[in-house]
Amino acid sequence: MLETTTTICHRGSIMKFDIFNPIKYGNMIVINVPSLKYLSLVDFNGDSYLCENMPEVIEAIVKVVHKSPMKLLGSLPSVKNLYLCLTNSVLQHQIGIYHLVHLELCQDSPGWWGLLTWMLDNSPKLQVLKLGKCKERCFISSIESHWRGPISVPECLRLHLSTFEWKYYNGRDEEKKIVAYILKNARQLKTAAFSVQRVFPMKERFQKHKEVVSLHRASSSCKLMLD
């Protein structure tokens, strides 16, 4: 199929921009909105995006099947609040998202644990980290390979992360490794909240709660919230 190009360009004072599955597979969408403040981009059709000139975006929801996700994230240098649902590994890229303070990451995306590692390494000012699921996706992506955490403790864990939330927590071995790593290294953590999936019997859910409680916490003021 021949690829066509759609250019979205706006140089005025635009505040919010929404794209939801805009065109069929095989299209290139070029987004050029230099005054944009809020971006919502949701597309699982597999379109290709060339996002450029979005230096003022401070809040973004990005849920896409994307061939080069780092080009998209690289176009958001000022983003502070970000929701990500991406399907590609980004570990080979090194760009900094220096203003990001609030991150929500979808755990339904293949390879999401690799994306988590990358975001911890490249978001030095991150204060809030939330793991959950987005309503647009309908499959469960478990951690099938071993989770490889950051080589060294990220700056955000040492200096800034204060809130960590995990909805739909299963308590599987690799998930426990992620929780143990963050609790062990997040020195400024104030709140850590975990919601175990209701599909587990009450006794098993209680056991998963006990496992979390037993983990070492670097922050003596960290309050655990278990559901």
Automatic annotation (TrEMBL):
Pfam families, alphabetized: FBD
Xref: SMART domains: FBD
Organism, scientific name: Arabidopsis thaliana (Mouse-ear cress)
Descriptive protein name: FBD-like domain family protein
Superkingdom field: Eukaryota
Domain FBD: 155-227
InterPro entries: FBD, FBL13/AtMIF1-like
